[in-house]
Amino acid sequence: MDDQQFRQLLDRFEFSWSGYRKVRKGVKKRISRHMNMLGCGSLTDYQIELDKNEEIRHQCELLLAVSISRFFRDRKFWQTLENRFLPDLCQKYRDNLKIWSAGCACGEEVYSFKIIWDCLQQRLVNLPDLEFLATDMNPIYIDKARVGIYSYSSLKEVKKEYQSKYFEQKIGKNLYQIKASIKNNIDWKIHHLLADPLGSDFHIIFLRNSVLTYYEKRLKKLALKNVLKSLARSGLLVIGTHETLPFETSGLTPVEPFSFVFRKG
Hints:
A 7-stranded mixed β-sheet has the order 6-2-1-7-8-10-9. Strands 3-5-4 form a 3-stranded antiparallel β-sheet. 45% of the residues lie in helices and 20% in strands. The chain has 2 domains: 3-64, no CATH class; 75-264, 3-Layer(aba) Sandwich (Rossmann fold), CATH 3.40.50.150. The protein has helices at 3-13, 17-20, 24-38, 43-52, 54-64, 75-92, 108-123, 139-147, 160-166, 211-214, 217-229; strands spanning 96-102, 129-136, 149-151, 167-169, 175-178, 186-190, 202-207, 231-239, 252-254, 261-264. It starts with a helix and ends with a strand. It has 265 residues and is of the alpha/beta class.
């Protein structure tokens, strides 16, 4: 599959070429394997299958999904979250705190949060109850996240003391498993961000390096509007460091020192 054919396929799903350009090699390999499995000798044959079979179309969309993440990606943000944003929210919402990782991929973001939450529990008293929803449209990613096994390259931003405290190294392998204590109280669900939200009044929503990178503008707007319905007043929306909002809204205000963290008015 050449780039022109791949762009035709992306256009079909209203996915963004600019978002896929740097990661297209692996995605094209997955799609090519799917085409071969179906006996499709050309993109035209493949598109015919996508037209007539909704399940095949769904399989294709899952194969187009990209999961590139690591623990504590953008370390300065996580430090600020632990030392400023979360203590402020815990002071304001003393009963419970609701967090949603929307497009959680294989769980690195979710467990990064749970690690700093555990650190806060050791420093602060009377923290609110934590409700954590983690969703992704790809069930394979959700299954991997539940297991919580990662290569060492995913842990390169993790402090050494955290590596020993929160991970167990798999014997004879360069793999690390998140400890069971950090897996508690996470509600994993399969969910498409273009579908109706699964909850409301979340105090933090992570929407990082997903729809705002890989969708075209119309779908970005639809997905973001759905997500914002679920964000509580004064809640924080966190997007990717290189992402931008697809429309201007007076209801979201950037939170210094970050251009990618917004507070809902």
